Amino acid sequence: NITSIKMDAFKEQQRMLKHWWFMMLPAVFGITILLLVTKQTEADGILVAIPIAIIGLVFLLFGLITLHTKVDEKGITIQFKPFMFKVKHIPWKEVAQAKVVKYDPLFEYGGWGYRKGWKKKKMAYNIYGSEGLEILLHDETKLMLGTQKPAQLNTYLQYLKQKYHLQAIEACIS
Hints:
Blueprint: E1 10-15, H1 19-22, H2 24-37, H3 42-64, E2 66-72, E3 75-81, E4 88-91, E5 95-102, H4 105-109, E6 113-116, E7 122-126, E8 131-137, E9 142-146, H5 150-164
Parallel strand pairs: 7-9
Antiparallel strand pairs: 1-2, 2-3, 3-4, 5-8, 6-7, 8-9
Helix pairs in contact: 2-3
């Protein structure tokens, strides 16, 4: 009986870039400095520096992208930094259905990140992978929250379903 286990909340933080990507940044900047030092003319230095600086800034931006997810007895909380400044909270009373599923991010939502699906009331917040919490709201909006911990999330959802009798939670991973 999983209701006898104390579980406060399911929390997950996902980053767009893994730690090994950040090890590439010093290499990019090192190559930039080397090319600038060995430049033949001033124009050569600018032609080398601009694209490498842009690549470095893109890496930095991707390094800031983080998806925070929290599920507890009050509802579902999402923050997708740096694009969402405010935390979005969805109380359980607004949820018609919630279940952990496998999905195709590219086909169903057009990729990863903060995505709107091909239909207006369909959105995804995902970093990578193809498993997530599918949420159908009473207003027929469909949200997908990517997860790297589908089994743990599903276990916690079953705990909530049993302990708090939340009818919106589906029974299994589909």
